[in-house]
Amino acid sequence: MPPTDPAEDASKPSADAGGVPTEKGKAPEAPLPRGEAPGIRFEKVVKRFGHNVVLRELDFSVAPGERVTLIGPSGSGKTTILRLLMTLEKLDDGLIWIGDETLWHMERGGKRVPAGQKHLHEMRKQVGMVFQQFNLFPNMNVLRNLTEGPVRVLGLSKDEAVERARGLLDLVGLADKENAHPTQLSGGQQQRVAIARALAMQPRVLLLDEVTSALDPELVVGVQDLLRDIARQSDLTLLCVTHEMTFAKDISDRVLMFDQGQIVEEGPPDRIFGEPSEQRTRDFLQAVLAT
Ligand SMILES: Nc1ncnc2c1ncn2[C@@H]1O[C@H](COP(=O)(O)OP(=O)(O)OP(=O)(O)O)[C@@H](O)[C@H]1O
């Protein structure tokens, strides 16, 4: 049985999330990533797995700093959208824009050609993702889980990475767990570490893939509250996939109802959940509420 911790209920980021004064009087780097966030645009994106066409010339966009949630039936391709943005899957056709650059393609001699590793790497640095199954490095302690990426990928010094990691562990209510290994933590604590790890890379786009689906019910609200507060306090562009409609309502500026590879309808959460105009949305919401 994983240990329980008061931090499970301490869902709010600490009051000094914006920066605690150091001994030298210098405010450390604010834990939440700051700076201009790019928008996202899918332009006629096609993704197939064999004969299974998962995305069919999909068009949609997320404005800079906007918080958008994708809802829709299981197997409709929501996770695939996030995985394409994370470069974990390759697209078959179309373009994916992050800001004013295409993710999977680059300009060469006035032509658009498939992206090389360097371009993918640079684009990928802007995007962070929190997964359903946490995906922490099991053989590293919590602090190292947070410092590994910033040191290896971003080139931070160890001291800088540790300072950033500690600020983020404080933010997610796990300041006292930096030496613990993931297996010594509850699911809720592991997901908090995963959130902090994603933020440690200072992404400008944050992807959330059913982040509370693997948690025991009593841990869900704490993690959702934490994410809602992070979303409100940061200026990240957020794309979230969830089956939790209350969370979707809470965290989003806009909700996209997605089915069979296409957007069925979209709008502010109050309208999509209160007065959906499409029958497929009504059926989906009814089915979700019945479970
Ligand atoms: N690596 C893969 N190889 C083959 N098929 C895949 C792969 N990944 C996803 N698929 C298929 O693509 C479709 C879309 O899957 P995806 O996980 O994106 O759906 P989803 O809407 O996120 O579903 P859920 O809500 O259940 O997570 C499904 O039919 C799935 O079986």
TrEMBL record:
Q: How does it sit in the membrane?
A: Peripheral membrane protein
GO CC annotations on file = plasma membrane
Q: Which Pfam families match?
A: ABC_tran (PF00005)
Q: Where mainly located?
A: membrane
Keyword Membrane found: yes
Where found?
Answer: Cell membrane
- The organism's place on the tree of life at top rank: Bacteria
Q: Which InterPro entries match?
A: AAA+_ATPase, ABC_ATPase_HisP-typ, ABC_transporter-like_ATP-bd, ABC_transporter-like_CS, Ectoine_EhuA, MetN_ABC_transporter-like, P-loop_NTPase
Molecular function, one GO term: ATP binding
Report domain ABC transporter positions. 40-285
- Annotated stretches, region: Disordered: 1-36
Q: Keywords, A to Z?
A: Amino-acid transport, ATP-binding, Cell membrane, Membrane, Nucleotide-binding, Transport
Which family, according to UniProt? Answer: Belongs to the ABC transporter superfamily.
Task: List the PANTHER family.
Answer: AMINO ACID IMPORT ATP-BINDING PROTEIN, GLUTAMATE_ASPARTATE IMPORT ATP-BINDING PROTEIN GLTL
Name listed for the protein in its UniProt record: Ectoine/hydroxyectoine ABC transporter ATP-binding protein EhuA
Originating organism: Actinomadura decatromicini
